[in-house]
């Protein structure tokens, strides 16, 4: 140790004293390295570089580590020292330049046992490739000590001076190399401890992720050994279990479970032993929440030790609600299959998942032809109303039910009308899971509506023509229905009753003027059998009113005697 006082006999030589001091220094440095906590490794190495640099009478020192990163070799300068007494500063600064590091690394890779000791760079033969490089950077002397760990070179400690220096004997060089190897082994231990810590952290993170995954699963997970004895139980919901985890651990099914569960578990274990996996197996069991349906899957688990047999992992999932929903879906599907309405079920992207036979029969599209396609692709055509399409599409995008009438087309292009009702489907958790469309074929009703519209239009035109013809008559004309309400008359008829209100709907008996004149007119028009005795009485013409079209009134009237201008009609 520099500054240490080592006593020697007066008869001892100076060389022996130097040897004792050298050994004392090395022992002290090694002790410092060994005792340093891992968290203080860098400080211990800095002290070693400082004391070795002073011992070697060098200006600068640095520690270079040779490592592999991402599959390629690299060299990193991790520690450096510069003598505070030496004001001269070489061009390499506080660390070795990359060119110098590469030159030294090449030599140590070829021979990791030999120390590179250049006492006077200027005195080197011109054939030495490093001479020009070292001289260019002001290096007068260089000492490089390889560090070994695990039988390979892990780096080196390099010392440089701006001028030449005195040589070391072989024993001194070996002592210096021992210190360098100790530094290399210390760094290797630090790396190993760091790797262990990283592995420990990685395992802890993986364990935490696994635990979080298990906690997120609704399943009941049980681990059993080769004999079927429960070794561990995991569930986030202990309330679903027949027995507590503590009651299961260390016991077999035969000791705790009903015979049917024992038989199922043993059968699944046997199948898993042969195939690696067994299930899913549905089964019913009584739980604290009542009778529930579970699905069991069993897989094999590798043995933890070489002398152990493989065990098994049981995964049981409560499928009660899904099973009930499936049964309900099957019943609804059976109903839908026998419906005459056109039923279509689509997913959340409005892609067809299922259609009933009535849909196939009416449209000509089979389920295998339309599955995965959008209904709009196969049902809409050139005459489909764009406003109706937009109204339906907007409601579907907003997840709102919608009902409308729309013109669709069959596979062969035949148009047909439907009354369509579309509802968004929601799961038990309220999430959107798809759509259901129920269509009623209203093509015939649309045809009837169109026919009635044509009849009404024709009737309106006939009435208009009749009114024009009545107004053109030279005589007064009036037509009353079976209840004596005025239906139609011309202006000449109104002129007969200037003091009465003559308008559509007026009653005949409200016309108080000249009843005798009316009787005379009726006698003239229809004959004496229609004349009243003391009061006006209207006869009836035997015509079926419900079937009579307005355009045929003149023809019906013309079939009665002569010149009929006023007559009644009684519905049959």
Automatic annotation (TrEMBL):
InterPro entries, from UniProt?
Answer: Biofilm_reg_signaling (IPR052155), GAF (IPR003018), GAF-like_dom_sf (IPR029016), PAC (IPR001610), PAS (IPR000014), PAS-assoc_C (IPR000700), PAS-like_dom_sf (IPR035965), PAS_4 (IPR013656)
What region holds the PAS domain? 328-373
Short name of one Pfam family for this protein?
GAF
**Where in this chain does the entry annotate a coiled-coil region?**
445-472
Keyword field contains Coiled coil:
yes
Gene3D superfamilies hit by this protein = 3.30.450.40, PAS domain (3.30.450.20)
* Segments forming domain PAC: 400-454
Q: Which NCBIfam families match?
A: sensory_box
Q: What is this protein called?
A: PAS domain S-box-containing protein
Organism field? Roseinatronobacter monicus
What does UniProt list as this organism's lineage? Bacteria, Pseudomonadati, Pseudomonadota, Alphaproteobacteria, Rhodobacterales
């Amino acid at each position: 140790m520099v500054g240490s006082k080592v006593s020697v006999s007066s008869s001892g030589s100076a060389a022996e004293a130097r040897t004792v001091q050298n050994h004392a220094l090395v022992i002290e440095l090694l002790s410092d390295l060994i005792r340093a906590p891992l968290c203080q490794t860098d400080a211990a190495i800095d002290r070693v570089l400082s004391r070795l640099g002073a011992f070697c009478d060098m200006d600068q020192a640095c520690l270079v580590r040779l490592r592999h990163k991402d599959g390629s070799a690299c060299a990193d300068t991790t520690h450096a020292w510069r003598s505070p007494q030496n004001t001269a500063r070489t061009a390499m600064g506080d660390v070795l330049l990359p060119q110098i590091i590469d030159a030294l690394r090449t030599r140590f890779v070829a021979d990791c046992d030999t120390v590179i000791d250049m006492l006077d760079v200027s005195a080197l033969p011109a054939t030495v490739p490093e001479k020009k490089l070292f001289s260019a950077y002001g290096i007068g002397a260089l000492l490089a000590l390889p560090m070994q760990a695990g039988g390979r070179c892990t780096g080196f400690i390099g010392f440089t001076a701006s001028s030449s220096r005195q040589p070391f004997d072989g024993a001194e060089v070996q002592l210096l190399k021992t210190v360098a190897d100790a530094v290399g082994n210390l760094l290797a231990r630090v790396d190993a401890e760091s790797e262990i810590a990283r592995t420990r952290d990685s395992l802890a993170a993986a364990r935490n992720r696994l635990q979080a995954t298990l906690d997120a699963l609704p399943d009941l997970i049980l681990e059993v050994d080769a004999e079927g004895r429960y070794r561990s139980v995991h569930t986030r919901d202990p309330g679903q279990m027949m027995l507590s985890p503590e009651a299961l651990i260390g016991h077999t099914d035969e000791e705790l479970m009903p015979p049917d569960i024992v038989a199922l578990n043993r059968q699944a274990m046997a199948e898993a032993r042969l195939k690696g996996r067994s299930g899913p197996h549905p089964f019913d069991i009584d739980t604290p929440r009542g009778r529930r349906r579970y699905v069991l899957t069993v897989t094999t688990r590798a043995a933890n030790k070489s002398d152990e047999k493989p065990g098994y992992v049981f995964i049981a999932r409560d499928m009660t609600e899904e099973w009930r929903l499936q049964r309900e879906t099957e019943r609804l599907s059976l109903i839908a299959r026998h419906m005459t309405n056109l039923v279509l079920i689509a997913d959340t992207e409005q892609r067809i998942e299922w259609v009933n036979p009535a849909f196939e029969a009416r449209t000509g599209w089979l389920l295998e032809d339309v599955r995965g396609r959008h209904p709009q692709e196969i049902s809409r055509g050139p005459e489909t109303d764009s406003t109706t399409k937009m109204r339906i599409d907007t409601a579907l995008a907003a997840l709102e039910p919608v009902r409308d009438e729309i013109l669709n087309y069959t596979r062969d292009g035949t148009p047909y009308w439907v009354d369509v009702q579309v509802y968004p489907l929601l799961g038990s958790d309220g999430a959107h899971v798809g759509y259901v469309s129920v269509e009623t074929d209203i093509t015939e009703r649309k045809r009837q509506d169109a026919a009635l519209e044509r009849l009404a239009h024709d009737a309106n035109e006939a009435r208009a023509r009749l009114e024009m013809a009545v107004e053109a008559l030279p005589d007064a004309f009036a037509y009353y229905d079976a209840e004596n309400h005025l239906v139609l008359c011309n202006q000449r008829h109104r002129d007969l009753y200037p003091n009465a209100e003559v308008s559509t709907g007026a009653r005949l008996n409200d016309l108080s003027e000249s009843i005798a004149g009316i009787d005379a007119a009726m006698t003239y028009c229809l004959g004496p059998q229609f004349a009243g005795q003391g009061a006006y009485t209207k006869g009836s013409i035997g015509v079926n009113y419900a079937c009579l079209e307005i355009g045929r009134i003149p023809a019906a009237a013309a079939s009665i005697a002569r010149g009929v201008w006023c007559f009644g009609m009684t519905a049959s």
